[in-house]
Amino acid sequence: MRDIQEIWSEIEKLKIEQKEIRKDYKEALSDADNYEKTVEEAKVLREKKKQIETIVQGRMGLRYNRFEEIKNKISELQEMLTDVAMTNLMDGKTISIKDQNQNEYEPIYRITFKKRA
Fold first, then answer.
1. 26: in domain
2. Which of 49, 56, 62, 72 would suit a FRET pair with 114, their CA atoms being 20 to 30 Å apart?
3. Whole-angstrom distance, CA of residue 12 vs CA of residue 89
4. What range defines the domain where residue 44 resides?
5. Rounded to whole angstroms, how far apart are CA atoms 8 and 14?
6. Long-range CB contacts (< 8 A, 24+ apart) of 50-53?
7. What is the rounded CA–CA span in Å between residue 51 and residue 69?
8. Number of folded domains in the chain?
9. Is the CB of residue 55 less than 8 Å from the CB of residue 61?
């Protein structure tokens, strides 16, 4: 098995190469015909889309507000689910969830690293 530091170093090297390629790509895009014009048109369309969405949200009124409340509650519950699952995992308990159709779900673990302050 490879050393964790060795893997980390390889990731760092690839990120540097990726950054260089991204810079070259952006330069090539800026030189491409009509790219800047197309970007500006897309920006205008995004703004128009946002205006239409705001109008429709206003028309929906309380129904759309309920949609936002539900979205926030789902986010809170998903965070709580993660916390409970981690607690159960650390206590050595098996984690198992079934939906209304009796489909079983298994947890997927993910570890990320952030720079110390």
1. yes
2. 72
3. 31
4. 9-60
5. 10
6. none
7. 21
8. 1
9. no
CA distance 77 to 73: 6
pLDDT digits (tens, 9 = 90+) for 62-88: 999 999 999 999 999 999 999 999 999
H helix runs in the chain, sequence order = 4-31, 35-60, 62-90
Query: Between the CA of residue 54 and those of 11, 28, 48, 49, 57, what are the distances in Å?
Result: 42, 36, 10, 9, 5
Give domain status of residue 21, yes or no: yes
C-alpha to C-alpha distance for 11 and 4, rounded to whole angstroms: 11
Q: At 2, which amino acid appears?
A: R
The sign of the torsion formed by the CA atoms of 51, 72, 97, 92 equals positive
What's the token pair of residue 65?
Answer: 């507000």
Domain for residue 86, yes or no?
A: no
108 lies in a domain?
A: no
Half-sphere exposure of 57 (CA within 13 A, CB side): 10
